[in-house]
Every structure is written in structure tokens, then in C-alpha cells.
Amino acid sequence: MYTIKQIFSSVNYTNILNSIQEFFSKDYFNHIQDTVFKSINCKNFDFARIEYQCPHCGSRACKPVTCKTKFCSCCSNIYTENWVNKLNQQMINQKHKHLLFTIPKELRSFFLNHRELLTSISDSLNSVFKDHFWKKYKITHFGYITFFHTFGRKSNFNPHLHILITCGGFKENLQWKPVNFFPYSAFKNSWKYIVTTTLKEAFPNNQKLLNILNSIWKNQIDFFIDVKGTEIYNSLNALKYLGRYLARPPLAEYRITHFDGNTVTFWYEQLPEKNKVFLELPVEKFVQQLVAHIPPKGFKMIRRYGLYSRNFSQELKNLIKFKYLKKQKIITKLTWAERIEKWLGVNPLKCLQCGSNMELTIFFHKKYGIFDFRLKKKI
Question: What is the Cβ-side half-sphere exposure of residue 20, based on CA atoms within 13 angstroms?
């Protein structure tokens, strides 16, 4: 199996990144470079490591340092597991629905260097949902979680929103009211208005954008949404569903079938038949496509609203806690040592020779140098 790390390490990715520098702000581009560099050196002993020593028999052990970036397939999986476990105690044990909101290909490039616009259109959807829940059902409190995705099946830049929303909410008397209908036409028209208005406000003097928008309205180009999506009937299944959309890398490595130094071949499923289609790209194009999905530093790819935000009354919090939260086993975040022990049945902080607890002695980093914990100073 070919890995993304292997492919990036086999080419001059710095030159490839420089070829797309003009499309990003300086800070954003520096963050992309830093993220790629960290992911390539993830678990590289020669780049960064932590050393341990047994205080009794003197045996030594080393642990490589992970990059902790979501661009890395290994670290993103750990991030997903930790996030889902954290949310385990907060999911309302009611039915949820998965909604999908997409952006036409003609407009996608405007979001490449302006990911904050995804936040703007997500925030604007809140008023659309509020209007729907209140006018028809007199619901004042509901909840939903938005996941920003920037990649399509071909790993191309295709920003869109996955939304997990409660099928119902609380009325003013704090009674739960179920909702099974979400209006397709009303949501689609509102979505089209939100996206086009947001872009016009962000780029008021961009003639290219104005021409595209005029063409979209004139030719009635569709803004695809899906409100008939999967229904999830309890909090456990909701959590499993969330994991699919949380920190998934833009391309699963098992889909890469060939790499010869010049081209990369991978497959994707073509809808609606789900036929397997193979796509061959020059390695430069492949690298450019993947790094375009790295979000700006500090950008939140997940947004929580309503009952899933932090801003609702203590009365509602107590009601949800005692009546609408299914009691779950509390899963604490595992340390790297606990994770290894869980997977392999061996505690890496126990001396293999005498069974004593190992002590932290050295932190080595190729860029920052060496810190000796015994001397409590950099050496």
C-alpha cells in the first residue's frame, strides 16, 4: 500500500507548494508548509523523540513524537476518537437527521483562501432553521452540528456542509416536540440566497464573481442540497455517524493503487451506481490537491449551535441532563502509553527487564535541540 507520507517524501514537495503560494495569504501558506513538514516527520525518531530510562537497571527506551495534525491520517484518527468520546456525554438521545448543503463548482474557488466564509454561511443557516422550527412547530430550542468538508470524491476542492440536526426541539413550556419534515424548496432557495449574498458582500468589486453570479441566476444553476438524508435514531448511532465526518483525510490511503515517482493513481466511487473509477494524476497535481484541504491555523471545521452550543439556559441544561441524555459509560482520553497498552497489551513505560517504572530523561528535537529532564535544562 502506498502512503501519502511516502509520496510526499519521494518528491520535492517544497517546489510544488511554492507553485501555489499565490493562492494563499502569507500566514496561511506558512501554516500549510509547517503542517506538511510536521506530518512527514510524524513518528520519525531522527526528527523528534522522547527518551526514558529505568532508575533501577538502567535500561533505555525511546518514543517517537507524533505531529498531531489532522492532515496526518494516523493523528487525525486519534483526534476523531477523542472528540467523539468527549461528545459522548452531550448527545441528546433523540432522533437526528443528516443534511447536506453544497456549493456549485463555479463558486468554489472563492472559498479557497477565505475559509471564514464557510463559517459565515453556516451561521446564516441558523436563522433559516430557527424560522422553520418556530413558524410551524413553535419550537424555541433545537440543536445541530455543522461539519465543513472541502474535498469531493476525487479529492478535488469541493467545499460543502454536513449537518446533523435534531428532529425536533423544546417548546416554550420545555416539552419536546418531534419534527419529521424539512422543507426542501424553502431550504434550497434560502441556501442559494445565503451563499450568493455572502460572496457579494465579501467581494463587492470582483467583476469575475459578479459575472458568475449573473450566469448562475440566468441559467438557473442548481444549488444541490439533501434534506432526505440518513435518520439516526439514538445518541450512540449519532456518535458513530459523527466520526465519519469529523477528521477524515481527503483521501483514504487504501484507495491509492499506484505511484511511480511521476504519477499517482487512485480510485473513487462514481455515483449513483457506485462504480469504481480510477484516476491518474501527475504527482504535482496530486500534492496540490491534497494540501488545499489544510484549513488555516485555528480555523474550526466543526460548529455547534443551539442545544449543542454553550449558550443556553441552566434550566434547559438540567432538563437535558436528567431526562434527555442517555447514561453513557464515561470514556476518558487515553495517553499514548495507555493507547499502546490497550492495543498491544504492553505498558511502554514499564521496564522490560525488571518491571520498574521508566523515568523521562531526554527530549530531542532536530529544530529545537535537546532538553535533559534530569538536569532540568537545555543541553
Answer: 22
Rounded Cα–Cα distance for residues 286 and 262 (Å): 10
The cell 449513483 sits on which residue?
272
What's the rounded Cα separation, in Å, for the pair 21 and 98? 36
Non-local (6+) Cβ contacts of 63 within 8 A are 49, 50, 51, 52, 336, 348
Sign of CA dihedral 308, 299, 37, 262: positive
Helices 184-202 and 207-218: angle between axes, nearest 10 degrees:
160
pLDDT at 189 over 90: yes
Report the alpha-carbon distance of residue 347 to residue 169 in Å, rounded: 46
DSSP 22-62: GGS-HHHHHHHHHHHHHHHTTT-TTTEEEEEE-TTT--EEE
Task: Please report the pLDDT score of residue 245 as a whole number.
Answer: 64
The arithmetic mean of pLDDT across residues 227-234, rounded, is: 76
157 is written with which cell numbers? 476542492
At residue 178, what is the residue type?
Answer: P
Axis crossing angle, helix 235-246 with helix 73-87, rounded to the nearest 10: 150
Asked if the bond preceding 272 is cis, omega within 30° of 0, the reply is yes
Residue with grid cell 530531542, as numbered in its chain = 364
